[in-house]
Amino acid sequence: MNTYKIAVIPGDGTGPEVTAEAVKVLNAAEDKFGFKFEKTEYDLGGTRYLKTGETLSDETLEELRGYDSILLGAIGHPDIKPGILEKGVLLKARFGLDQYINLRPVKLFPGVETPIKGKGPKEIDYVVVRENTGGVYTGVGGNSQMGTANEVAVQSNVYTRFQVERCLRFAFDYARKYGKKARGAGEDNTLTLVGKTNVLTYVWGLWERAFNEIGDAEYPDIKRAYCHVDAACIYMIQCPEMFDIVVTGNMFGDIITDLGAITQGGLGIAAGGNINPEGVSMFEPIGGTAPSFTGLNQINPLAAILSGAMMIQTLGETEAAEAIENAVRWATANKLKSMAAAQMGYSTTEVGDMVAERIKN
Amino acid sequence: MNTYKIAVIPGDGTGPEVTAEAVKVLNAAEDKFGFKFEKTEYDLGGTRYLKTGETLSDETLEELRGYDSILLGAIGHPDIKPGILEKGVLLKARFGLDQYINLRPVKLFPGVETPIKGKGPKEIDYVVVRENTGGVYTGVGGNSQMGTANEVAVQSNVYTRFQVERCLRFAFDYARKYGKKARGAGEDNTLTLVGKTNVLTYVWGLWERAFNEIGDAEYPDIKRAYCHVDAACIYMIQCPEMFDIVVTGNMFGDIITDLGAITQGGLGIAAGGNINPEGVSMFEPIGGTAPSFTGLNQINPLAAILSGAMMIQTLGETEAAEAIENAVRWATANKLKSMAAAQMGYSTTEVGDMVAERIKN
Ligand SMILES: CC(C)[C@H](C(=O)O)[C@@H](O)C(=O)O
Ligand SMILES: CC(C)[C@H](C(=O)O)[C@@H](O)C(=O)O
């Protein structure tokens, strides 16, 4: 029996609530599909920072390298200055563990209402591969003459060919394996590069050259497309059906995946994975800590549950991952009234229970 | 009688077609409201570049400084490498004439269909003030070891306090003058800063400090709000009614204004202005050259017509600007079947005619 060592970081706000449901569902899958988790909980995030002044220490980061995977709830605190927890915990983990891919499916599940007119699960069904450890997130830059009238702030978007290549290869491979042709939903496996080649010529010139060279040489079977990030936002609303697998940089990926999330019914159902294909990955719902719903048992745990499914999918438990996804699909199609917190028609724990039960049976 | 010297740059693709209608409507306003245009046409853009190799020369740029305003159609050509025309014409004009504001109303006109469920003209009614000559558009950066496996590309987001301040002051002033309270549509004039303070701490730290300092000291009457750019994309779909006047940097502004455009019915109706409040401004529809509709008399000229209205508004002809906007409002409410090219129920010239006629009467 396969055993997986999992670090669980419930985090702040509603993070612990949704993580508990993800764990509940994973336990159900464990029993049914015959693998085992060894879970270790880590107390990280804003609450801890306010108590101890600690974010993610180097020692804890080292420890995290010893796990097979990490399950994260949400990190954030309204009383803490922006940037501290993000850079100190979330980005430190992403960068420190070299999780260079952020994988975000934009899939409208049956029964889930999209705010976009005339679009259904057939049209909203694509995956964004976001580069996750480069670009403007690198932190290169600073402030000169800070606080004066002459202050200059610089924040550099930096990409190396190496970073771009490994991200593109992941995306091309992913398109080959999970593109619309591969999953019987279209004639081609298409990879669309989203960039801004007409203005950010240095960085997006590099991406575009690498995209075409690697595509021609190694993935002639994958259809390639390109669109500017501004146009991509239009198309995600107007004709999301044109997308299959999308690849983009870190900042643009951050933006378009949130836009994608709202088209698929909101943060309650949007899952994500920070992936190091050769190392330790970390899975987290896209949504934040939702302070106004904390402790109310009203937040939607499906995003966390689907993140758990992505985790075991990445660990190789494909059948179990599919079972979780199917159980969620069943719940959205037949049970939940809405994806929004407090409007599901069920409590957080009830949603977790129904998905877990569905998997067992 | 006021006389305005206007440089008209019809540009490429459908640019000349929509510009002709904007000019037609402006002529109608001229007669009715008693001012005069002296128009000079400039042949700039992709077609000219392919013939002569020239983009926007320094001499022409100097000439343009002599006008009261500039009316632009669209610049672009499918056969020209991305970046050449953008940097050589459009951005050269924006930067050269120091048009440091890009003003983009996101207003759903009556009768126009938005792709967003449950939202109408009351909800989709805000204005984005985009910083237009700084940030990552500056062109600071380059490629090291280009074409090798060790290539590094750097594209720097650079903002000075000066740039940030003048943009913010424009936005605060604009909020005071045109915010929801000022136009009788709400209790406050609200200015929302859209940034990414939690990751891009150098640049957005500068923006945030300036925003709060200037707001406290000079605009205590303006309500302030902040949201991250990724969240802003969600809110623009989920609750656009929360926005009044929005201010943001160049790159984020590029992205969110295209998203805004689709929520207001698409590029056919989305107007924009590149504004130098102390100098020569340039007005352009957000849409591109639409190669597939070129020459067919099917493209929607309303975005160009509304850009013309913004132009004369900026020149001080408020009454005439309102008359054009009202005529467009009448056309969308009563005439056009759709904002999409070839689906309006009228030709390009017919739409121009009906708006012009409406103004005259
Ligand atoms: C919280 C923040 C640092 C993070 C990001 O910008 O990547 C979040 O928006 C996300 O998309 O996971
Ligand atoms: C064409 C391009 C250079 C331009 C921009 O990025 O600003 C366009 O997208 C716009 O928004 O006006």
Automatic annotation (TrEMBL), chains A, B:
Concerning SUPFAM superfamilies, the annotation shows: Isocitrate/Isopropylmalate dehydrogenase-like (SSF53659)
Look up the record and name the cofactor or cofactors this protein needs.
Mn(2+); Mg(2+)
Domain of life of the organism in this record?
Answer: Bacteria
Is this entry keyworded Manganese? yes
> One Pfam family from the UniProt entry?
Iso_dh
Entry-linked InterPro entries: ICDH/IPMDH, IsoCit/isopropylmalate_DH_CS, IsoPropMal-DH-like_dom
- Stated EC number for the protein is 1.1.1.85
This one is known as 3-isopropylmalate dehydrogenase
Source organism of this protein record: Limihaloglobus sulfuriphilus
- What is the taxonomic lineage of the source species? Bacteria, Pseudomonadati, Planctomycetota, Phycisphaerae, Sedimentisphaerales
